[in-house]
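Question (not urgent): is this output format expected?
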Amino acid sequence: MKNRFFRSRRKPLAATLVIAAGLLFSGGGYAVATSVVETSATEYTAEQISEGRKLFLANCASCHGLNSEGSAAGPSLIGVGAASVDFQVGTGRMPGQGSGPQLPKKNVQFTDEQISLMGAYIASLAPGPAIPEQKYLEATGDATHGGELFRINCAMCHNAVGAAGALTEGKYAPNLEGSEAKHIYEAMLIGPQNMPVFNDANITPQDKNDIITYLAYLEENPSAGGFELGNLGPVAEGLFLWIFGLGLIVAITVWLGAKSN
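Got this back:
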């Protein structure tokens, strides 16, 4: 029986079946894992893609290559999806102006229509994250759950209330106050610059909506503890107490001593 088993393993048909099964499981697993964060260019027309390519060649190709293949001055954009274009260009980070540890947010240089067209072109190159649906951008989720998710996944860089934070080598996590819900969602989806990727397999679309709701709640409700001191945490609060609290005590002590004399 054992010899028969080993003889069957050496048959060409058996090897073919093993290889086919391996390809099926690996390919199927990859498709399932990536389907939650990718889209194709089927939602865009040929005209939109063509117009987007013209804008790309005029404004982006000098760094990212004529075919978006990347260069020493800029990474490849194949597979980054329309969400990446909408975030980077929609926040003014792109086109970049000068080198540095990271690209700062600045005035937007393109209209919404132009940004959409460039996103259409980039999305046509390969599947990638799509611009989020409007239903996930409304601040109607669970702010309590969103706060928990934010403190677990985001607070170590952005601060517990999204007030920004310093990173290494001159990099930083930006202040999230005033950020558009769409850009917050897209940042989680694409992981720009130093930020990790939180695709829909890590944090679901509804969870992302809960985080957006939490950040909106923080902006709409003042600090219950009084003066916020920039929401920078115990260091700023301790410094305030040392300077003003102890300073006031010293001043009172000096005044009492002078009065007694």
